[in-house]
Amino acid sequence: MDRTTTTSELRAQFFPLLLAAGFVRQGDTARRMLDGGVLHIVEIQHRPRSAVFQVNLGAHLLALGDVAGGTMPELQAMRDHDCTWRGSVIAGFRNATDAEFAYGASAQDAAESVAFLVSEWQRQSQAFFAPFSDYPASFLAAARQAAQDTERHPAHLLTWARVAVLLDEIALAQSIAQAALPRVPERATSLRANLEAVLVV
User: Is the pTM of this model over 0.85?
Assistant: First the structure.
């Protein structure tokens, strides 16, 4: 099937769920702002040549600024890739990490593909957005969990250390930075410097 047919099904089945959850839709992107400067984004990414679409998720704490260290886009222009935390709704048709939903070969296929997205939405969106939904409580809980995570990448730990600083939890921020430093690759000098800066906050 094509993008137009799938978009019609998204408008009929999926977008009403977003509106009911407080999102404001602008084209293929929907945003909602929560207390504490927390932004949630849902973005439909179409790949018509492959006849698939993805549902990308983003969460951002505005106080953290731009993820790349530059100028943050205007709120109404922010997309999932502008967010500190990103994910996707997993379709799981090919494997456990597959995020592509097929347009299908017919209008019925397209309707069924979107229906499956709808059936997964509540569970998967809740799992993604929950740590970023109640500022400051859920962010503090997630930062404390990050401090205990022995597998998390040091760049992700830096983000949680910065969150802890924003929450005025300096001891927590420094413990996260200390846990991250031994895992920093030798060539990641900027990351190391940023983590070391947390230790002297």
Answer: yes
**How far, in Å, CA of 178 to CA of 136, rounded?**
23
Residue showing tokens 């222009």: 77
DSSP-derived 3-state class of residue 26 = strand
Q: Whole-angstrom distance between the N-terminal and C-terminal Cα of the chain?
A: 55
Cα-Cα-Cα-Cα dihedral sign, residues 186, 187, 188, 189: positive
pLDDT tens for each residue of 85-121: 999 999 987 788 899 999 999 999 999 999 999 999 9
Residue 35 class from Cβ within 10 Å (0-12 exposed, 13-18 middle, 19+ buried)? exposed
Peptide bond into 136 cis (omega under 30): yes
Nearest CA-CA partner of 174 in 151, 152, 143: 143
DSSP 94-145: SSTT--PEE--SSHHHHHHHHHHHHHHHHHHHHHHHGGGSSTTHHHHHHHHH
CA dist., res. 61 & res. 82, Å (int): 11
